Amino acid sequence: MNSTDIISVIVLVGLFWIYRHLESIKQFINEQFYDDDPALGVNSSGCRDIAQVLRENDKNYLVLFGSQTGTAEDYAKKFGKELTARFQLRVMVADLENYDFESLNELPDNMPVTFVISTYGEGDFPDGSVNFEQFLNELEEGDDSLGNLRFSIFGLGNTTYEFFDGAARKALDKLQNAGANLIGKLGEGDDGAGTTDEDYMTWKEETIDLLQKELGLHEDENKEYQPSFIFTQMNEITDKTSLGEPSKQYLPSETLQYDVDGKQRGPFDLNQPFVAPIVESHELFQSPERNCIHTEFDISGSEITYETGDHLAIWPSNSNETVAQFLKVFQLNPDEIFDLKAKDTTMKLPFLSPTTIGAVVRYYLEITGPISRQSLGLLVNYAPVTIKEHVTRLSKDKELFAAELLKPKYNLADALLKLNQGEPWKNVPWLLLIEMLPKLLPRYYSISSSSLSEPQTIHATSIVENTANEITGINTTGVTTNLLRNISLSRTNDKFSEIEAMPVHYDLNGPRNLFADSRLPIHVRHSTFRLPKSSNVPIIMIGPGTGVAPFRGFIRERCAQVNKENVDVKTLGKMILFYGSRDNNDYLYKDEWIEYGKILEDKFEIDVALSRVQEQKIYVQHRIMDRKSEITDLLNKGAHIYVCGDAGRMAKDVQGSIVQILSESKSITETEAQEIVKAMKVAGKYQEDIW
Ligand SMILES: Cc1cc2nc3c(=O)[nH]c(=O)nc-3n(C[C@H](O)[C@H](O)[C@H](O)COP(=O)(O)OP(=O)(O)OC[C@H]3O[C@@H](n4cnc5c(N)ncnc54)[C@H](O)[C@@H]3O)c2cc1C
Ligand SMILES: NC(=O)c1ccc[n+]([C@@H]2O[C@H](COP(=O)([O-])OP(=O)(O)OC[C@H]3O[C@@H](n4cnc5c(N)ncnc54)[C@H](OP(=O)(O)O)[C@@H]3O)[C@@H](O)[C@H]2O)c1
Ligand SMILES: Cc1cc2nc3c(=O)[nH]c(=O)nc-3n(C[C@H](O)[C@H](O)[C@H](O)COP(=O)(O)O)c2cc1C
Ligand SMILES: *[C@@H]1O[C@H](CO)[C@@H](O)[C@H](O)[C@H]1NC(C)=O
Ligand SMILES: *[C@@H]1O[C@H](CO)[C@@H](O)[C@H](O)[C@H]1NC(C)=O
Ligand SMILES: *[C@@H]1O[C@H](CO)[C@@H](O)[C@H](O)[C@H]1NC(C)=O
Ligand SMILES: *[C@@H]1O[C@H](CO)[C@@H](O)[C@H](O)[C@H]1NC(C)=O
Ligand SMILES: *[C@@H]1O[C@H](CO)[C@@H](O)[C@H](O)[C@H]1NC(C)=O
Prior knowledge:
The protein is an alpha/beta fold. It is a single-pass membrane protein.
């Protein structure tokens, strides 16, 4: 043997060894790089070049989403899943946030792209999609720089907002102007009409038909559900096992990071909340039917800061009742421990893993909310034989579906139990449920405190969603707000009769007692809802119901300016607050306004419209019209207008009355007055915080 032969033998032996140990090597690599951090699985080695990542992962279809609260993400995943299941496409579903798009015109094999984008703020892109928006803005118009790109697009929005589907419409425009080729039509899901699901179904069917033709796809007859994850049963709970911790940092295997002052390090956002102690919590209404909870979170143990006008995100968990119902219908064992691995690195794990089924159902999945027809469609194959035909019909007939399942406000578990006469659906794969259901996401609240007055506490004012349901006799309840109410009741021991009356109950201790002693995970989302820079600019605030929340913050801010910063009250601009409630029992913070008035003297005024204490409804906009000459005066002095609360009718009606006042006082048409309001909005002089 000469030396080359020896080297060859060594290499061969080496290769054979690698071959024999391939699985363990893969596993080792996975553990090193992916195991600890599910988020890391998203991009191959942190690469942001979209074409390269697709090439490296051997994909042939791309779905990109921009989402604020997860709806767009959810539809993007459903779309990707359907392409995979029906046509065996190798789909990558990714958040616009995680990639750069300079190579969008050079995708491997000229693969088509589907965009699913929601709109936030006032016709804006979701927070995470700013990089994509910037990319779009930098495209040269008419230069054909995206001439190779074929795409389809579905936008999500709510027609009650002025700039409906603003982000997707803008994306469509910019992409087409740069020469990209649209497949099918822009789909638009409208939350306002409550038709998002149906709008998606219609768009999806048309688009998939066209894609089939364009790509010559053949549908696989034997389309069985192919999970995107690998499930491994585990035997014991270790300190790496999540029991529902809101993020990895809270696992016992990790250590929380603190700064020199002993404050917990952020950033605190959708990836990591701060588990904040609730230092005050009480009922604000004196009404027998409705509840509104005032909650104060102490953020002094963290690096969190906020500004008056920001939003607080509160991370909820599901109630005992809804968890039990869900476990029952699918015959799940909450104590089962399992680990989840993505089949390929472009798939992100939906939650921390290893974990337990019970933790996932209580803390990680959105299991309430109306059942969707799309979801029912996915479950048809697993329906008990006796009802399969009926379930199939329901999943295809939208009127029947609406009448039978939406109208009674069933959630998924309720609906399935109802369809099967209270008997379980035993065959639904757990992994399908994980992939099908949205993540349980935090809810936002307009902060009702002032960062100047109380920098270390954040106040939230939340109306409890608990409405009677004539059809089922079981109240329809909101996840977060009933949790806040339970915490409030649990702090006042003498109210046992009321505790009995709660429609749902929660595990207030949380995973490994993390939430014991009234704690909840929170983070702050910065908004653009801001007082004028100068305190002498007059402000007109309009906030009926819980819409008053940020204005309590505004007024407390002005009080603190007087008390803490020695601002002379006489220099302050006029502050009028138009507030509305049903009667005196739901008049929020009634006594506080008197105290603020003592500090702010004649500069502050609250004008109250009680709607139900007389025959005729009196709303904030009626009070505004009654004082039109004063409003005109203030507007002439440069007053800013702020509107907060219900986006449905209130914000529109209020805008209508402002338009009318402008048109009368300036002797211009209503259309011209509309234009003034639009310009005020662009200039930040007419701000809305509506939901
Ligand atoms: C920017 C912003 C600011 C906000 N500020 C405030 C604020 O200051 N104060 C405030 O109170 N709210 C505010 N909200 C609303 C808040 O975020 C929540 O949406 C609200 O509190 C309900 O949350 P929940 O978890 O209790 O209800 P969810 O569980 O999210 O339920 C939402 C609604 O759906 C209903 N529902 C549940 N299941 C079904 C079903 N199967 N079929 C049909 N309907 C069903 C519930 O009864 C409820 O009314 C704000 C929202 C945004 C976006
Ligand atoms: N989708 C809707 O139609 C709608 C409407 C209101 C609130 N909401 C939602 O319900 C939840 C609870 O609301 P809330 O407690 O803040 O409000 P709320 O207590 O229900 O209402 C506050 C006050 O606003 C009045 N109001 C009703 N319609 C109005 C309109 N078009 N313009 C001006 N004022 C109007 C109410 O009068 P009356 O109740 O006596 O009419 C009441 O006096 C919130 O999440 C809110 O977004 C939805
Ligand atoms: C605070 C807020 C602002 C919104 N602004 C708009 C808007 O300007 N135009 C619009 O069409 N939809 C608007 N919407 C509706 C959302 O786009 C719609 O609910 C969508 O389904 C959310 O998708 P996401 O969960 O993926 O973010 C807004 C929703 C909220 C909560
Ligand atoms: C992807 O890679 C980038 C760059 O390394 C990193 O900042 C980002 O956090 C990664 N994304 C995710 C979601 O892991
Ligand atoms: C059900 O909702 C109604 C209001 O719609 C309320 O009066 C009643 O107390 C609620 N019942 C329970 C058990 O919470
Ligand atoms: C609320 O919390 C208390 C304390 O943990 C608990 O004992 C009670 O059963 C809960 N009640 C409700 C109303 O959920
Ligand atoms: C809710 O569930 C938790 C966890 O299983 C349990 O400790 C608690 O007692 C339950 N609360 C009620 C009121 O049923
Ligand atoms: C759409 O906006 C209206 C007005 O705020 C609101 O009542 C409705 O709940 C919104 N739809 C959804 C599903 O967010």
